[in-house]
Amino acid sequence: MYYRIVSGNYLYESLYMKDQRSDLGLGLSSVLKKLGAMTSIRDTNMVEQSLLRTLGPLLGVLETSFYRIDDNGGVIRALYHSHKVVDKDGVKHIVDNVGEVINGKEIPEAVGNLFDNVHMLRKACSRKLDEGLLICYPVYGVKGLLGYFVFQRDREVAPVEDAIIQGVLEVFTNYFDLLDTSQRDQLTGLLNRYSLEANLDRLWNILSARLHDANNGHTMRVIVPESYWLSVLDIDHFKKINDTYGHTIGDEVLIMVTRLLQASFRQSDLLYRYGGEEFIAILAANDFQSVTQALERVRTKIERFPFPQVGHITISGGFSSADPGVLPQEVINRADSALYAAKNAGRNRIYHYDTLIREGVLKEVNAGDIDLF
Question: N or C terminus: fewer CB in 10 A for the chain?
Answer without folding.
Answer: C
